[in-house]
Write a structure and sequence with these properties.
mainly alpha; globular
């Protein structure tokens, strides 16, 4: 559970309802896969990274607004899944003969990044609070967008 939600006194059931945001991720994965198959994986990645960066703004209101948090979580999940699927599509297209190895390596680094993000977020939250976590999330997302912008093929 996101620590700022404790101030909202949500029940276990209400907290569990955040799992429904996964539905947005499922829709994003299917849509991103379709766009990637149509040759739009690069564009999908960029748009999803922009959405990911923006999603941290409503998430920053978690301590005061459940509705903003829900909107932010849905946007974040949609964006993350779209980046995930389009990235794997680009990896597979780049070297079809090595697709399994490359996707395996991608997943290893994806998991390491998730673990590092959780460790950093925990430290940020304990020292500076929820806003610091959201600023860091937005900063990392913006950096990913800038890297994408600078490295995309024309």
């Amino acid at each position: 559970m996101v620590m700022p939600l404790t101030a909202l006194s949500l029940s276990h059931t209400q907290t569990g309802m955040f799992g429904l945001a996964g539905f947005a991720g499922m829709l994003a994965a299917a849509r991103a896969g379709k766009w990637a198959d149509q040759g739009w994986a690069q564009r999908t990645t960029g748009l999803a990274l922009a959405l990911l960066t923006i999603s941290w703004l409503p998430i920053g209101y978690a301590e005061t607004s459940l509705l903003w948090l829900i909107a932010g979580v849905i946007a974040l999940d949609f964006a993350v899944q779209a980046v995930h699927v389009s990235s794997q599509s680009l990896i597979i297209a780049a070297r079809p003969a090595a697709a399994s190895r490359l996707v395996g390596a991608y997943m290893c680094f994806y998991s390491l990044g998730s673990a590092a993000g959780a460790i950093v977020a925990t430290q940020l939250y304990s020292h500076w609070g929820w806003q610091a976590v959201c600023l860091a999330g937005a900063a990392v997302s913006a950096c990913a967008f800038l890297i994408w912008s600078g490295s995309r093929q024309s």
